[in-house]
Design goal:
223 residues, alpha/beta, Arc Repressor Mutant, subunit A, 5 strands
Length: 223
């Protein structure tokens, strides 16, 4: 994971806007990279950079909304603050539903934009930290044998050793051995810690899973 200073990426086809935004964010102490088109940004952006994308909505070629969709499809993780010279409510709603941090109209208030970007970067920092921790947890869980993972999942569900043994067709002593081995591999000492670890990973995985309802059209959803 990259540990460099946060970078504000600017994508706007208007040169004067790019220059003004570059000055604003450089004076505020951010690293800044500016692009005249969405395609330029996609060719440059790396997946592991901490930062925020300040993105114009309407541009020739690929629009800001289309770039947002491309970023999501590519699996890139970066908060987006949209700038627009047009009060397009449907577009703003669509962008926010897709995860945009905010939608700011031009001419913008510099302090409002700075505050919004700072908050977005802090959220990004926290999300990256959580992803790193979850990655470590998944790596620990991957060390378990299939049987150890079965036992762990049942322990987390609140099942007692005797019931687990009956369910799996093994002895209670064997259940205790699998449980002890699993906890040693995971580096934890209590059932409460075990439950927190497994439930945190399961919750994160559930959040990432696509929702079937998201692909429904309004007519599909109403039938």
């Amino acid at each position: 994971m990259s540990t460099g200073a946060p970078v504000v990426f600017i994508v706007d086809d208007d040169l004067s806007i790019r220059k003004a935004l570059r000055r604003l964010f450089q004076v505020a102490g951010f690293g800044v990279e500016a692009f005249a088109s969405a395609q330029e940004f996609l060719e440059r952006k790396r997946a592991d950079e901490l930062g925020c994308l300040v993105l114009d909505v309407r541009m020739p070629g690929m629009t800001g909304i289309a770039l947002q969709e491309a970023i999501i499809a590519a699996g890139l993780s970066i908060p987006i603050v949209f700038l627009t010279g047009h009060g397009d409510v449907p577009t703003s709603v669509r962008a926010m539903k897709a995860g945009a941090v905010d939608f700011i109209e031009k001419p913008f208030d510099s302090q409002v934009l700075l505050d919004t970007v700072r908050k977005a970067i802090e959220r990004h920092r926290q999300a990256r930290q959580e992803d790193s921790e979850l990655g470590e947890m998944r790596e620990l869980l991957s060390r378990l044998t299939p049987r150890e993972r079965e036992v762990v999942d049942m322990v987390v569900q609140g099942m007692l050793n005797k019931r687990i043994a009956l369910h799996l067709g093994i002895t209670e002593r064997t259940v205790k051995a699998h449980r002890a081995q699993a906890m040693e591999k995971l580096g934890i000492a209590s059932t409460a810690e075990l439950a927190r670890l497994v439930e945190r990973v399961n919750l994160a995985d559930a959040r990432r899973a696509p929702s079937p309802a998201a692909d429904e059209t309004p007519s599909d959803a109403s039938t």
